[in-house]
Amino acid sequence: MDISINKSPRQGAVLFSPYLRGEGIQKALEIGRENILFEIRESKLKGRGGAGFPTATKWMLVAASVAKEKFIVCNADEGEPGTFKDRVLLLEYPELVFDGIVIAGYTIGAKEGIIYLRGEYEYMLQSLEDYLSKMREDNLLGNSILGQEGFDFDISIRLGSGAYVCGEETALIESLEGNRGEARNRPPYPVNTGYMNRPTVVNNVETLASVPHILLKGGEWFKKYGTDKSTGSKLFSVSGDCTRPGVYELPWGTKISELLEIVGGENAKAVQVGGASGSCIPRSQFDRTLAYEDAATGGSIIIFDKNRSMLKVLKNFMEFFVEESCGQCTPCRIGNVKLLEGIKDIERRNYTFSYINKLKDLGRTMQVASKCGLGQSSPNAFISILENFKEEIFNYNGFGGTNGK
Amino acid sequence: MLLLEKNSLTEEIEELVNLMGHERSSLLPILQALQRKHKYISDFAQQEIARLLDIHPVEVYSVISFYAFLHSEPHGRNIVRLCQTITCDMAGKDAVAKAIERELGITFGQTTKDKRITLEYANCLGMCDQGPAMIVNDRVYTHLTPEKAVNILNEIK
Ligand SMILES: Cc1cc2nc3c(=O)[nH]c(=O)nc-3n(C[C@H](O)[C@H](O)[C@H](O)COP(=O)(O)O)c2cc1C
Ligand code: SF4
Ligand code: FES
Predict the structure, then answer these.
(1) Contacts B131 to A, Cβ<8 Å
(2) Ranges for all domains in chain B classified under CATH 1.10.10
(3) A314 CA → ligand 1 middle, Å
(4) Inter-chain CB proximity A163 and B32 less than 8 Å
(5) Which residues of chain A are within 8 Å of residue B25 when distances are taken between CB atoms?
């Protein structure tokens, strides 16, 4: 296996700071459920999987339910193009992820935690299973965890099979239940009727990995990093045209230009923030900040330098969505195909501007009429790239950049 | 399929079902185990799974057809998945793909005559900082060049 694992140089305020396995669980058991919820609420931690829902609210809803069975599901489907931070957490910081799951289970009153690991990450299955066995040996999993009478909890790992949409929480639950990964109508939300129709918390790997640190150092401490609305730090997966691609932990509120300097991407003409379903930010807006309230992202940052054809970039994104649409609803199933056809027409110089405008309208319809986040966000790239790079794409200047690499 | 093969496949599926459970939620792990070993899930296997889980065979087929990594048609002994998504594309996946196609004499979506290798494209493998990337069965290879990729494939049996 030739994946670079290079733990020692990683540095960061929260996730990439020192932590001893089991510490967070110990602390959680000491302070009890009420105080855990209090600290998480204080920290204003929001979901790191993309949607940014307040974690404490989600946990409280399930903790308050009297159902006799509840579940905590760790979403390790990480399928958004350009995202690979969960890979780093699972391979290099499993103690944070697994302790976070145990703490969540304790807080909401679950006996079972499930990790939904994308099929592409099957190569890490054995090492994760071995890690779980060690936790069982050390009584960090199993019955009466760390001597806490009545706290019985275990974690199992389930694999995906190559479907991006299964990262969407209701599609993920369908998949766990043995079905096609087709998103459900929401509401009801998983906190009410989740896995096996039981109250279920679905959290991203990074969200759960943040929890042990918050408990140890307090919600107030966490809030020192980031902005008012986006507290703490975030892992960014940086790829594309830069000299130092990789995973970086930076506080929310970091400017795009600052990030580019850190990763050696100063020559960028555009940055795709949030992956294929995110939006494309041109150089003129590089002073925007990475934050839920500005340029939001689940972590994906893809950098394009001046030689890249933005039309080709857009085509790659739309091909992705055409393949990954689950096909359940018409706006997404047909819409993505139409948008891709439009891009091919532009490539062939066979378009009119009224046709392009119709396609943008179609995109806006998809944003409101699609059933799940896939179809709601797939037109983002289409609209933002055609808008921000029209000179290049429609060849305003004679020899534009469209014949780039 | 020979009767003997059928019997052994039935036995294998019975074992899997006993291990993983008769519930519907065991369907995917059962299919994944069969896929890993046989590289596809035959009509007969689908019927047997349906029988043992007490669901309609169409349900089994419909699940298989949904997931990119599950197949209902025979495939090669090794499945190669080259990432076709944006960063790997920018890092030169086209050159890698062409070299592999030339070397094996097949195009993506096809299987070599000797059933050694099936070529497929996959979407983002989560290795974008080290692209171009590919997965061979369940092993990942990164920083591919055309030559490196071809050497890797020439070594697998
Ligand atoms: C198409 C689609 C794919 C998604 N993929 C992922 C994913 O791979 N990982 C993830 O954590 N969340 C993903 N999400 C978001 C989840 O639906 C959900 O919001 C998240 O897992 C909640 O966890 P959090 O609150 O900790 O972020 C996806 C959403 C959509 C619409
Ligand atoms: S929006 Fe797309 S992925 Fe989501 S349910 Fe509709 S067809 Fe499926
Ligand atoms: S784009 Fe190829 S691994 Fe992510």
Answers:
(1) 239
(2) 2-66
(3) 22
(4) no
(5) 176-178, 196
Q: How far is Cα A203 from Cα A207, in angstroms, rounded to an integer?
A: 6
Torsion on CA atoms A369, A370, A376, A380, rounded to nearest 10:
-70
Domains of chain A: 23-223 (3.40.50.11540), 233-304 (3.10.20.600), 310-394 (1.20.1440.230)
CB contact under 8 A, B23 and A162: no
Sheet of A300-305: strand order equals A246-251, A233-240, A300-305, A268-273, A279-282
> Structure tokens of B133?
């990337």
For the entire predicted model, the pTM comes to: 0.96
Residue B128, classed as helix, strand or coil, is helix
Chain A residue whose CA is closest to B124: A81
Q: Which residues pair with A234 in a beta bridge?
A: A250
Question: Which pair of tokens denotes residue A64?
Answer: 């308050």
Percent of chain B with pLDDT over 70: 99
Per-residue pLDDT at A51: 87
Contacts of B126 in chain A (CB under 8 A): 78-79, 83-84, 86-87, 118, 120-121
Residues in chain A: 405
pLDDT band at A1 (very low <50, low <70, confident <90, very high): very low
Residue A77 at interface with chain B, using a CB cutoff of 8 Å: no
Residue of chain A nearest B125, judged by CA positions: A120
Query: Cα A176 from chain centroid?
Result: 19
Q: Is the CB of B125 under 6 A from ligand 3?
A: yes
Q: Is there an atom of ligand 3 within 6 Å of B140 CB?
A: no
CA distance B123 to A162: 8
Q: Is the CB of B96 under 6 A from ligand 3?
A: no
Each residue's pLDDT tens digit, A100-151 = 999 999 999 999 999 999 999 999 999 999 999 999 999 999 999 999 999 9
Residues at CB less than 6 angstroms from ligand 2: A 165, 183, 325-329, 332-333, 370-372, 374-375
Q: CB–CB of B69 and A119 under 8 A?
A: yes
Distances in Å between the Cα of A32 and the Cα atoms of A36, A58, A108, A153, B70 are: 6, 18, 11, 16, 44
* Sheet of A200-204, strand order: A154-159, A112-117, A71-76, A200-204
Task: For an interface test with B, give the residue of A84, A92, A118, A156 to mutate (most B CBs within 10 A).
Answer: A84
Nearest to A51 by CA among A342, A372, A351, A360: A372
C-alpha span between B4 and B6 (Å, rounded): 5
The fold for domain B78-156 equals Glutaredoxin (3.40.30)
In tens, the pLDDT along A310-340 reads 999 999 999 999 999 999 999 999 999 999 9
Nearest to A320 among B68, B85, B125 (CB): B85
Topology of domain B2-66 in CATH is: Arc Repressor Mutant, subunit A (1.10.10)
What residues contact residue A254 under an 8 Å CB cut-off, 6+ apart? A289, A290
